[in-house]
Specification:
The protein is α/β, with parallel strands linked by helices. The protein is built from nine helices and twelve strands.
Length: about 290
């Protein structure tokens, strides 16, 4: 970089060398034994800054050389990335397969989504994740407000396309604070190898996958073992989904919310208050 009056500055990427060149000078000063010999006003010299002692503050003010040196070292020093936001509450992702054949199931599920936040008011944040048309088209912000969650669910319709469960798992893995993913679906039409890798990664992070498997269509039964394998790899489980039993679904979602907040210990504690707690505990311990 060239400054006014012919002064040029070069800084190495590691911040250890700064060279100043002033026009008209032909002599150089070299650093020796930790001191710098300045020969004249118009000379060439090389400065190799020493790392400051512990707790030593950077110099304030000083000569032009000191100010330029400090500026150049700061310019090439790496900047630490900002720390990610740490959620105040545990998080749960409620995923759903909203492809064309799923309209009756989605009509049942979207009426009971509020059960996820009403079970333990103010203790859990929930995001709605819905795929349809061959894409994960909805992944809402996390919220503890039952009305917000229900309103977002009411505005979603089913669209023909292949399943995208893995997109939901990947997004959940990238979201800090998630402890449980609840997924309602029937078939699996994606890469099993990638699914297993994602499930293993979820398990390592302590994120459980709970699948509510809708087998009302005979073709869905062929994927029962696949979905069970993915859930088991995370430490989760698979439960049956009945489109004609919304009250039972509400109970299971309430239990899943408690599990997301306090694990099996809280589920055991809430057995009397949450009708679905015993059923979820049974499947978690069985699977």
């Amino acid at each position: 970089m060239h400054l006014r009056g012919g002064l040029s500055v070069e800084a190495s990427q590691n911040g250890c060398l700064l060279e100043l060149d002033v026009e008209g000078g032909a002599e150089k000063a070299a650093k020796a034994d930790g001191t710098q010999a300045l020969m004249s006003e118009k000379q060439n010299f090389v400065l190799v800054p020493q790392p400051p002692e512990e707790n030593e503050e950077p110099p304030r003010g000083g000569s032009l050389v000191d100010r330029v040196r400090n500026w150049a070292v700061a310019l090439v020093s790496p900047v630490a990335p900002p720390l990610p936001d740490i959620p105040r509450r545990p998080r749960l992702v409620f995923g759903f397969d909203a492809t064309a054949s799923r309209e009756p199931a989605w009509a049942t599920a979207r009426t009971v989504t509020d059960a996820l936040v009403r079970a333990l008011p103010g203790e859990l944040d929930v995001a709605l994740a819905v795929h349809g048309g061959g894409a994960l088209h909805t992944f809402t912000e996390f919220t503890a407000d039952a009305r917000t969650l229900r309103d977002r669910a009411a505005g979603i319709s089913c669209i023909p396309g292949h399943t995208r469960l893995l997109a939901i798992l990947s997004r959940s893995l990238a979201s800090p604070g998630v402890t449980v993913v609840v997924y309602i679906g029937d078939v699996f039409e994606e890469s099993l190898a990638r699914g297993r890798k994602l499930a293993d990664a979820l398990g390592t992070r302590g994120i459980r996958l709970i699948v509510l498997h809708d087998t009302s269509d005979w073709s869905a039964r062929r994927d029962a073992e696949v979905l069970l394998d993915l859930a088991r790899r995370t430490g989760g489980c698979v439960l049956p989904f009945d489109v004609n039993a919304p009250d039972r679904l509400r109970d299971i979602l309430g239990a899943a919310a408690a599990y997301a907040v306090g694990g099996e210990a809280l589920l055991q504690e809430k057995r009397a208050a949450l009708p679905g707690a015993a059923l979820l505990l049974e499947h978690l311990r069985r699977d």
